[in-house]
Amino acid sequence: MPAAKRKAKAPKAAPKKAPKPTTSNLTLSAVKSAISSGDGRKLDKLSGSSDALTFLLGLGSDDATKCAVTLLEHHTNSSPVSASCLSFATSELPSSLVEAIYSSSNLTNKRDLYVAAGWVPPPSATNELSIAFHSNCSSNKAVIKELMATPAFSKIGNAYAAGMNLFDLDLNFEGVYPLESLKLMSFKHFPKKLASLGMAGRVEDVSTFLAVLTHEELKSLACIVRVASDSDALSTEELTMNPGATYDEPPTTTFGGWSKYCSKVASFEVTKIGKPLLGRVNPRVVEATFTIDLSLYNDNIRREWDNWDDANLYLFNVNGTKVDSSVPATNLRQLGVERVRGCKVTSVTDNDGNELTNQWGSNPTIASSPIRNIKVNLDTTQFYIDEKSNKLDVYKDFNVVMRRDPVNNNAPPFLQTLNSISQTTSALPRWLEPTFLGFGNPEDAWGGGEKMKRWAETTPGVPKPTDSIDFGTCFQDDKHIKESFPSHKVTFTGAGQGSKLKFDGKTVSVTHFEPTTDTKSTPRFTPVQVEAIKSGINPGMTLVVGPPGTGKTDTAVAIITNLVRSYPNQRILMVTHSNAALNDLFEKIVATNIVDERYMIRLGGGEKQLNVVSTHDFTKRGRVAYTLARRELLLKDVQLLSESLYVGSKNDRGPKGESSYTCETAELFNKHHVIARIQLYYSNGTDAPFPFAKYCEQKGEPEPTGEEATKVYFDKLQELFDELKDFRAFELLRGGAKRSEYLLTKQAKIVACTVTHAGLARDQLIKLGFKYDSVVVEEAGQQLEVETFIPLLLQKDPTRLKRICLFGDHNQLPPILKDRELAEKGNFSQSFFARMLSLGIKSFTLDSQGRARPEIAALYEWRYGGLKPLPNTSEGAYLKANGGLLHNTQFVNVADYEGRGENCPTPYFYQNLGEAEYVVAMFQYMVLIGHDPKKITILTTYNGQKALIEDVLRARCNNVLFRFMPQVFTVDKYQGQQNDMVLLSLVRTERVGHLRDVRRLVVALSRSRLGLYIFGREELFKEVKELEPAFSLMWQKGTELKLIKGEGAGSDRKSGDAKVSKDKLHVCKGVTDLGQIVGSLQAIALKSVQ
């Protein structure tokens, strides 16, 4: 490299440039002399020049490196970092220099220096900065303030956040962009790689800059270049890592394999190269087209491919002559990949020209053929680089296209979100900022604190300390209210199911009222839940710690519905970590019947999983289709009413009988004809004839009788016209996209999404002018700090945010990070929820559980200082024992099976065949004696065991007796869910593994309501002190599975009744013994079926 540089400077004809710092005559001794003399001018000149640093590093000696460190330190201490130094630092800064800088600098210099160089510090430095940021110790307050006062901190925070997001994506970090292997496992090399991908200066192209593949996607690419003879036997479950390729002469790659995520490309062509924008060098747009054939795929996979909107695709140039089939493919080079480029889909048509993108409404176009003609936008910056490097030939040779699993394809927009947040000058409301940064008074952010009370006095849209709080239908009766405030004097006025409470010291004044809608009954909230609901309605931050089964979701629903009723003009953002939790929350809100469905919208990909009895779906497209259909239905009623009053006639209708009215003309008709007749009716007295009798007759409805019934009918008519006012904008807006934006930004009162979708859609929501007043976050304990932080920043005006309600449980699993250095040394495994708790912010810990039998809850309630059982746990099914099983909970010892215990075929892919067979045999036994298979869940602690159990289920449950297979999850993935019966496989027989984390144990033990059966190695887990409080209760029942002969699932035996005659009790001696019992029961059952 030095020779190349000298050669580049050799031509004599080069034009003369303005004088600048030079190192043509520089020597190491001269640098040492300048440093030892302390000559400021010389040091300024040397440290401000990247040439001097390049020269010193080129020498490669320890003395030269130390001199380079000294020059950089002098530069950061004396003046802002220069462009030349920054350019140098972001190009080739060796790790040895990074370590040397860190070891010789103080905290302030390290911060400035690393930010200037575009590097994140080594793990030890990361820990130091992280402690300064996260800790609330008084000794660190000055450091935190000093850090936050500089632009450097926001850049460091952004780099940390971006790194955390990438490492959280479960990647193997074996990718190509365009040919460079992305080895991101070393944290200190991350920012440089990130800059090369687009974080620095290419944010506008983030949809295409990250081509990092997951393990499954790498296997998917391997499959399509398999040898043709293997293709017939390949299925989606049989993806292998042994690719091969066949090719003809001259070398033309042909593909004999099949892949779910990859397809062969035909006719790739660049169709348009736009001119650069003013001040830019890369083209404004680069468009291309190509064709793929989906005929090899079944309908389900074809539908996945046809989800084209905003899709990112990756184009590969695979050279069959370079496929290395002699070893397992671990990177793209071994698969013959020579180039990778990203692109974004703009339109897709089938062979008949039917448009398959940007479809709105309930009846999307069905493709007439499996051929897809795809139009894409290429990465313009990469195209410019290729053009300058004479590499445009790569665009002629693309022969494979890959779509990415949406779960793994969210890094680019997420990184763009983080980058845009780092450039925001004012991000949080002032009442939250000091507490968020860790140096404010913890009480200042809570609604009951004096500072928030003063803030509420001058802030519209929040209850003032002297105002009544609308609890709606949270209370079942007056006794319930008194129980909720045992230390207060409670007085009552008014009548009705609803309640408004006014607090004055130790006095609570209750005013009852009748709700405007028929609401469903609510659970009998405990006093702690009532206090949490009160805090959630007030302004400020509310933290609710919810142990398993204590009603976190019900509490959140009560806060949301009461806010909608109390402040109908405000908007609520509802966020969770998982789709399952969000859907559960959404369904419960719908079930209350308090919030009209037209005011709710669900963003993201999980809305299809909603199990709601509704007249429409809650997707943006479904909402548009519903609104249009609802508008037509209401206008037909207006047309009928008009005809009944002889204002209009049937001749005014359209050719298909549609109404002649629009929302605007309907409003005029209401004003001049309907309201006028109602006023005339009241002015003439209630004995006057009913003005809409003919309308009732035409609709087949009875005419109202009596003053009250007539008033209700008039109100119902006005509700019809009021609803049409909401739809008026649809007559002005054209196109589904514009209409969906209107619903999102103007009409919806509750907007629901996951934290992932919030991160992906932030920039779009900001552009649309999305606004909200309250944020409710479920599963806050499972979210990375940045995942909770982003939903607070989805609007331009931070002062609008009035409430933040966080629901979580820091005693269960924390956020999961794939990178151990970030998790342990950087403290990224601490959630925002846990950090706020550690700061001392007022929290509400729910103390009564209604999910599990008391004997199951006893296994984990020690973690919470005790949980009181709710009355429902001593009723119904909780009173009965689990039929056919002596105990409701039991630890079953599993010895070596076929001479072995745990097995690890690949790193961290732990399996245990004995436990898998035992668990499946247990499932079969329970189903054969009458237990509902849908109420049985199988859990395990490792993905390898999950895959093995699923294999054993397919092999053993392959007849008509097992029509429904149980769901199999890892413990981590099942957090937040529950079922009646849980069978848990612990897998490990040599070491305890990650179950030693008590938080994971709490999750595993708290998923069942009626029965929990754990399969593991007794001698291993008996030695673990951390698990003793839970497992000691199970050792008392013995570790051999105890069955009751002849007893079915419908037994009337009482729970806890372990007195069974010896002739009915069967003690299993192992998996073989249980297998024989299952075989006998299965033979009898099959015989009866035949």
UniProtKB/TrEMBL annotation:
<dbReference type="GO" id="GO:0071013">
    <property type="term" value="C:catalytic step 2 spliceosome"/>
</dbReference>
<feature type="domain" description="DNA2/NAM7 helicase-like C-terminal">
    <location>
        <begin position="829"/>
        <end position="1018"/>
    </location>
</feature>
<dbReference type="GO" id="GO:0004386">
    <property type="term" value="F:helicase activity"/>
</dbReference>
<feature type="region of interest" description="Disordered">
    <location>
        <begin position="1"/>
        <end position="25"/>
    </location>
</feature>
<dbReference type="InterPro" id="IPR027417">
    <property type="entry name" value="P-loop_NTPase"/>
</dbReference>
<dbReference type="GO" id="GO:0003729">
    <property type="term" value="F:mRNA binding"/>
</dbReference>
<feature type="domain" description="DNA2/NAM7 helicase helicase">
    <location>
        <begin position="529"/>
        <end position="818"/>
    </location>
</feature>
<dbReference type="InterPro" id="IPR047187">
    <property type="entry name" value="SF1_C_Upf1"/>
</dbReference>
<dbReference type="InterPro" id="IPR041679">
    <property type="entry name" value="DNA2/NAM7-like_C"/>
</dbReference>
<dbReference type="Pfam" id="PF13087">
    <property type="entry name" value="AAA_12"/>
</dbReference>
<feature type="domain" description="RNA helicase aquarius beta-barrel">
    <location>
        <begin position="251"/>
        <end position="404"/>
    </location>
</feature>
<dbReference type="InterPro" id="IPR045055">
    <property type="entry name" value="DNA2/NAM7-like"/>
</dbReference>
<protein>
    <recommendedName>
        <fullName>P-loop containing nucleoside triphosphate hydrolase protein</fullName>
    </recommendedName>
</protein>
<dbReference type="InterPro" id="IPR048966">
    <property type="entry name" value="Aquarius_b-barrel"/>
</dbReference>
<dbReference type="Pfam" id="PF13086">
    <property type="entry name" value="AAA_11"/>
</dbReference>
<dbReference type="InterPro" id="IPR041677">
    <property type="entry name" value="DNA2/NAM7_AAA_11"/>
</dbReference>
<feature type="compositionally biased region" description="Basic residues">
    <location>
        <begin position="1"/>
        <end position="19"/>
    </location>
</feature>
<dbReference type="Pfam" id="PF21143">
    <property type="entry name" value="Aquarius_N_2nd"/>
</dbReference>
